Backbone:
């Protein structure tokens, strides 16, 4: 982020093994806040450019090897909300019934329903009352589609929300056949939209064919 720098600490699960002339997939986990003998460290809200560096452990002296990439990595750090909403999973609905599929044939199905299962934590005195917004994003094509919205929903900490109250109708004809779309779920907050999907759940995806 411009004017701010955060160096994630090295942890035991940060150790990986790379071999010459081989492809290696690595999941990078790091703490967004921690304390050490120099004091507390935390990522301030904002957008960060991410720089990945390998620190060698099999050499006499430590070496730091920058990892190149085809494009710059960026992450958005959001302020911690008073009401934290987790999306556990997304249901796709055909004619009001849940279906176990992610690819839809436009010649047979031009519209589906979508609803979410949530978990709400936070301040018991605070709650969310407004609409749930669904956005479909194709990262490869840099395409973002306002897909649909629910009616007014009340989300209260530590209380179950009926999934059907979050349902919205999705017009599949607006999607490009063959493209993979990720489901993004948003709420209204202070006049803006805030995404409520977290890394605790896999991102739901769908695709259309014809």
Residues:
């Amino acid at each position: 982020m411009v004017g701010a720098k955060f160096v994630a600490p090295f942890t035991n699960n940060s150790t990986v093994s790379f071999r010459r002339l081989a492809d290696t997939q690595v999941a990078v986990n790091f703490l967004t806040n921690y304390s050490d003998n120099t004091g507390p460290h935390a990522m301030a809200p904002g957008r960060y450019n991410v720089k990945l560096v390998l620190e060698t452990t099999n050499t006499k002296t430590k070496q730091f090897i920058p990892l190149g990439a085809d494009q710059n990595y960026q992450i958005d750090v959001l302020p911690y909300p008073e009401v934290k909403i987790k999306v556990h999973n997304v249901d796709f609905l055909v004619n009001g019934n849940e279906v176990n599929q992610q690819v839809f044939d436009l010649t047979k199905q031009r519209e589906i329903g979508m609803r979410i299962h949530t978990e709400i934590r936070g301040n018991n005195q605070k709650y969310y009352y407004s609409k749930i917004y669904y956005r479909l994003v194709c990262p490869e094509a840099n395409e973002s589609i306002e897909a649909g919205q629910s009616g007014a929903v009340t989300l209260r900490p530590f209380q179950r929300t009926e999934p059907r109250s979050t349902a919205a109708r999705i017009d599949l004809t607006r999607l490009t056949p063959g493209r993979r779309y990720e489901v993004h779920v948003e709420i209204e907050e202070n006049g803006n939209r805030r995404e409520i999907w977290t890394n605790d759940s896999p991102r739901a995806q769908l695709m259309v064919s014809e």
